Every structure is written in C-alpha cells, then in structure tokens.
Amino acid sequence: MRTSELVFKSLRETPQDAEAASHKLLLRGNYIRRLTSGVYSFLPLGYRLLRNVERIIEEELDRAGAAELLLPALQPVEIWRATGRIDKMADVLFGVEGKSGSFVLGPTHEEAVIEAMSPDIESYRDLPKLVYQLQTKFRDEPRARFGLMRTREFIMADGYSFDVDRDAMRSSYQKFYDAYLAIFARLGLQAEPVEADAGSIGGDVNHEFMVASTIGEDHFACCASCGYQANIEAARAGDREPVKVDLEVEPKTYSTPNAPGIESAIAALQALGVDVEIGGMLKSMLLIDEADRPVLALLPGDRTLNVPHGMRLADDTQMAGFAKGYIGPQGQSPRVQVLADPLVRTRPSWASGSNEHGSHVVGLRLGVDFSVDRFENLVVVEDGDPCPRCGASLSLVRSVEVGHTFQLGLTYSAVLPHARFHSVSGEELPYWMGCYGIGVTRVPAVVAQQYGSPDGDAVVWPLEVAPFVVSIVGVGATKDNEVTAISERLHASISEAGLSVIMEDRNVSVGVAMRDLELIGSPIFCIVGARSLAKGVVEVRERIHDRTIEVALEGVVETVVALGRELASERR
Ligand code: ATP
Ligand code: MG
C-alpha cells in the first residue's frame, strides 16, 4: 500500500481533548476519529490495527477449541427481564423502542447466547461447548475516557462455555484462561491475571487480566514474595498481631461542638490538648444489609471502607436515631450488628464519636467499652498491607483491565428453564457456564500507551499488531529517478514475501514523511537514499531494538523477512 492511498494526513496540532499519549497518537496518526463522546470511527490505518488484534484473538480461541459465531446486538427486552438484568444493568443499558416492541442494545451477551445455544444442548453428549464472537457492545458509560479506553460503543471478543458439572466448567475455563495468556503475549501486553470481583455478571471464581499503566482506572494488589494478585475490590489484607487492650486508661468524653467526621474531630480534640492521630480514630459507618437491617462497620480513621457484598451505605432516613457524624460502637442496641475490620484489634484503645452530637470519647477499648459481633475484612487494601497468603508486604499497581474471565456456574441456567440438558441418568439439569471477554477496541489504546512515545507523536507497534510491518521511504525521490524505482521494486517484493508494507509516495519532504511514518509505527523501516544506492546499499532500521544496518540491495528482502521472523518469535 502507499501513503497516498491511505488518505493519510497526520495532524499537525495536539488534539485538544486528548489527555493520554495513546489517545493523542491514535488521533494524530488518523487511526480513529470521534463521532461523539465515547463513539469512534476506525479509519483505514486504525482498522488494519484492529483487524490484527482480532485475528490474533480468533487464532488463539480457535486453537483452544472455541467456535466463532455471531449473536445479535439488537435484543428483545424480554430476555433481559427473564434474568432480572434489565434492573441490575439499568445504569448502562441502551434501550430502543421499535414498532414491534422494546429492545436492548446488548452490553454483553449471556442472555442471547443461551437463547442461541440451548436448542442444540439436549444431552450430556452435546457438552462441552465453547463458543465466542467479536461483536459490538453498547454501554451508556457515564464517563467515556481516553479515546478507545472507555467508550459507549466498543467491540468485545466474548466467549461462553457450557458444561455438565463444576469440574468440566473449570476445565473449559482453563482453556479460555490459557488462550487469553497466549493472546496478550502476542499483543505485546504483559497482562496479569488477578483475582477479581464478579460485579453484575455474577458467579464465583473470576479473574481480570490487568496491564500496568499510568492511565489505568483500576488498581490491583500484588505480593512480590508469593505472587498473590487481586483487584483492590477483591483483595484482602492478611491478619496482623492483635494487641492487648490498655486496661489502665478510662474512656473520657470531650466536648467537640461542630466537629462531625474524622478530620474535624481530630482538629477539635487536638485543640483541647488531646494527643490523637487519624489512625487512632475509629470510623463507624452505618450500613444496611440485604434484609434492610442496620450494620455498624468499624475501621481505623485513616482507612477506606470496602462496602461488603449485599450491603449499602445508610441514607439520611435510615440514619434517624443515630448521631450522624458522631457515631461510635459503644452502647449500641442489640438490633445493630457490629462488624469490625481486624485492624480494630491492633490498638490498645480508640477515639470515637460519643453517639451524642457535639462530643467525642477517647480511650475506648475493644471488649471492655464496646464489643464486636463479627470481624471481617472491611478496608480497601493499601501499599504495605500484609499479604493474606504469606504476610509479606503488598503493593498496589495502577492498571487497565483488558480481559475478564468468569466461572458463572449455574447463575443463569438456574433461573432459565430452557438452559437444561439430560444427564447420563436421564435427569434434567441446568448446565454450568463460563463467560469470557476481551476489550478488542480497548487493546489498541493499551498497546499504544505501552509502545508509543510519552507525547504521543511516535510509536513502534509490536510486530503482530503493526498495521504495516515495513515502511519504505525514499530520500530524494522524484517521479522517475532510481530512488523511486528501487523503492517500488522493494515494495513489490517485500509484499510478495508476505509482509505488510507501506511506501511513502506523497510529494512531501523527508522530514514530513519520517514524522508521519513514525505515527504509522512500523517496526521495520527501509530508507532508500541516492547516496547509499551509490554504494549499492539500503538502510534498514529495526525500531524495536533500535538497530540500523546497511544491507546490500539484493539482500534487503531476505534481511527484512528474517528480522520479521525474529521479532515475531520474541513475542510468543
Ligand atoms: P470496566 O471495569 O473497565 O468498566 P467491565 O468490568 O465492566 O470493565 P466486562 O463486562 O468485564 O467489563 O467486559 C470485558 C472487557 O471489555 C473488559 O475487560 C474491558 O477490556 C472491555 N470493556 C468493558 N467496558 C468497556 C468500555 N466501556 N469501553 C471499552 N472496553 C470496555
Ligand atoms: Mg470486568
């Protein structure tokens, strides 16, 4: 291909709304163009990149034994009612009113795949089945961000597995999991599988595949010592040695008018000469459980609450009868269940609200002045917390989620009467499912962030995703000189050798050509110049390891092919 055919016109200026380097690069290089917030077109260069990502995913999932299919994006609302997700996913669903009824633009495809597959799953002999698709998803994301990173319309590679029992489901899960690792390696991404939270998809065991990135919206905790890794929504800190409570101190009440909340309480207490720090204040937060009962959660004042599953923060009405801003665990009525993070055992005494507006208590002791019904991990993990497996120090890594795998179990099949098969003994049983997703259109942004320059004006794509593996540029090319003739010849023979290649053929200066080619990001450049041709050589630049070699004209194709092979094998 030639640059003139690619409608390639790079942007001279920094796009205004682009904050992330990857976003700038993809806009400047004319890979994508925004239609509206969170909705993008893929221009020819970007589409080549995307197709490469899709091809890698297809090859690895086919190899894993999954069959590709295509499910509808337009789905009748009834199938979303049947699983109850019409409510659970209400905040992101796009609805469409048609003449014949109401529809949902699929944000994910569990409902649709069950409808498509169930008629073919009659008996245990029909299982296992592994399928996947590359399909557009629609999610009304409140915050579309960083170009392709978070969009309202995006392509996902979503897979589904159907099995007879838990063990069989686990073995299908493993197939997808292994395929994911192979896919991310070929994409040039170091994706870490971390234990994760199942969210609205449901199910039990699940992993997120996270790529460390400064523009990530997620964090995962990892232990360098034993390899434990978990998303911070799912991560737990290990236990610490409990300390003995201080039997010498006595709780003392201080008047602290207009000092609700931890920060102002500390200021008020310190003003009274009390020696107290934020980590020594007890945070008491009122939650409501699934049965609408009040639960008091206790944690140190300097930690953030990770609201337990099935619970929510109490609203103002539910706070009636509690001294909002001054709540403490002491003297609570038995109808309030008191939950505490294990960290509450690590201080001899605590400062806390007094349960009366305008005063705080200092010197409250666990087991003496207040009691706890149950200890449970309640805090969001932080850098330096002990690992739950080995006790070494955890560290937090900012990251982007590129994939997610779930063992769904019977979450869907239990509620859908047609999601059944006949077992060996003839019994009708719900099948065991798994579901798996890769953010296909998110991948180019993540790869660009990883392999692009910090200011978003150049990139070296990993070999297998590069829109063009080789770029050819002539220095001092005119319409009919030798530079052009040799460039044309190389273009034809490199392409014949099976590598994707683009040649600069526009009437632009070498400076402009080079700058644009840096945006196209081929890992291999061939620079054909009159001066080197006089010596019978062409300059070949391998940009991943930054090697430049002069190659005799007749050996250029062979050298380029060998370099391509070498780079491909490095990525697997
Ligand atoms: P996130 O936490 O990033 O919102 P999610 O957990 O809601 O993602 P899943 O339902 O697990 O997403 O979808 C599988 C994959 O699809 C994700 O790992 C991610 O790579 C991709 N993805 C999800 N939402 C978007 C989006 N709005 N734009 C682009 N890709 C997305
Ligand atoms: Mg997810």
From TrEMBL:
GO terms for cellular component: cytosol. Keywords: Aminoacyl-tRNA synthetase, ATP-binding, Cytoplasm, Ligase, Nucleotide-binding, Protein biosynthesis. One of its GO terms (molecular function) is aminoacyl-tRNA deacylase activity. Coiled coil: none annotated. GO terms for biological process: prolyl-tRNA aminoacylation. Gene3D superfamilies: Anticodon-binding domain (3.40.50.800), Bira Bifunctional Protein, Domain 2 (3.30.930.10), YbaK/aminoacyl-tRNA synthetase-associated domain (3.90.960.10). Its EC number is 6.1.1.15. Residues 33-462 form the Aminoacyl-transfer RNA synthetases class-II family profile domain. The keyword ATP-binding applies. This is Proline--tRNA ligase. It comes from Ferrimicrobium acidiphilum DSM 19497. The gene is proS.
